[in-house]
Amino acid sequence: MTEWHDLREDLVAQVCERGISQAVADALRAVPRHVFLPEVPVHAVYQDDAIVTKRDAEGRPISSSSQPAMMALMLDQLGVEPGQRVLEIGSGTGYNAALLSRLVGPEGQVVSVDIDADLVARARDHLERAGYPEVIVVCGDGAEGFALRAPYDRVIATVGVWDLAPAWLDQLGPGGRIVAPLDLHGVQRSVALERAGGHWRSRSVVPCGFMRMRGPSAGPETTRVLDAGTDLTISLPEGGEIGDLVAALDGPATELFTEVNSGLAQLVDGLSLWLAVREPRWCTLSETQPGWLASGPLDLRGFKMVIGIVEGDSLCVLESEAYDTLVARAFGPDAARLAAELAAHIGAWDRAGRPMTDGLRIDAHVGAVPVGGLVIRKRHTTLALSWDTG
Fold first, then answer.
1. Could you tell me if 114 and 125 are in contact, meaning their C-beta atoms sit under 8 angstroms apart?
2. N or C: which end of the chain has fewer CB within 10 A?
3. How far apart are the first and last CA of the chain?
4. Is 66 one of the catalytic residues?
5. Are 145 and 87 in contact (CB under 8 A)?
6. Alpha carbon distance 24, 8 (integer Å)
7. Which of the residues 63, 64, 65, 66 is marked catalytic?
């Protein structure tokens, strides 16, 4: 059997294909991930996959060890340097905190905060066993940061956040940078932000997907199981009321074929983002057993997912036919109208040049509200979105 260090080398080589820095690659080689996942088989630990580590009473995942490639990309976004002080929001297994500790070196300091006392205890134990006892792991609401060790040079959230907590921005010192998987009306992007005059401006934006923050700072997104037999579930980025969608799906469908062809990457990165920031009725539906969803373009491991729009007792989902032609398939009393509206979004996205995350710029304003353009209002900040065309 291959030794774990050989498996780790294979993983690091795979992650390096994403173009990560030498410093982050060295940290991945130095920190043994299996120490932080002692109950997981070693061959699974050193795959480039996220691993669920805790579920709630209903079996839903609430904590995980993130995909190593995603962790590496975010660490590069963070731009950690030796001797810096770093605040981490979301301790998880402690693995990312160990990577951070390796990057800041013996002159630096890492503080990690998690709301779950059980996870905090495990993270402390894992860090001790791995040789990183200097990391400070605190049980508390991550939205409050940890003022006792402020100011920080870097702040990183390893959990999906709906808004930028004021404490994080306040606890960043001059020239500081924050990286967070930020919610953009139901889709997440890992955003690296620095101060730019009176607001915060993105330095880089990367597609991502993280479990959402729990506690008082959780966002309004809701998920509802529509059919337990197939685990048909709808996610609504802003919550809200819906009608009897199972009855709608059980009825006739209205199909509107577009003239747009698209591959999976453009759908996941581009069209989903387009709908999220422009269409307040947008939603996702998924199921783990075949039943209600047809040829969804987002067929992932273990379940099928489609994106669409929902209104009352009607919904329209995006599906694909031969040669990846996009189809708006609608159900319910307003099916024809919703199909036309979703098809219009697809056409507009296509005519706009199919913008994706590449080139996206996000400006986060505290207090002052920008005028015009694409704007997403949060509790504490207002996000202004634009695309660099140069």
1. no
2. C
3. 51
4. yes
5. yes
6. 14
7. 66
CA atoms within 13 Å, Cβ hemisphere of 60:
10
SS3 125: helix
Condensed to tens digits (0 to 9), the pLDDT of residues 156-167 reads 999 999 999 999
pLDDT of residue 1: 42
Cα gap 33→5, rounded to integer Å: 10
Chain CA centroid to CA 51, Å = 15
- Helix (H) or strand (E) holding 347, with range, is helix 335-351
What are the residues facing 311 on neighbouring strands?
Answer: 314
d(C-alpha 291, C-alpha 287), whole Å: 8
Q: Which residues of 283-320 are buried (b: 16+ CB within 10 A; e: fewer)?
A: bbbbbeeeebbeebbbeeeebbbbbbbbbbbbbbbbbb
Which conformational region is residue 94 in: left (phi greater than 0), alpha (psi within -120 to 50 degrees), or beta?
left
**Residue type (1 letter), 42:** V
Which value, to the nearest 10 degrees, does the dihedral of the CA atoms of residues 87, 91, 93, 99 take? Answer: -10
Beta strands at 85-89 and 152-157: parallel, antiparallel or unpaired? parallel
Instruction: Report the alpha-carbon distance of residue 40 to residue 51 in Å, rounded.
Output: 9
3-state secondary structure of 358: coil
How high is the mean pLDDT of the chain? 90
pLDDT digits (tens, 9 = 90+) for 4-43: 888 999 999 999 999 999 999 999 999 999 999 999 989 9
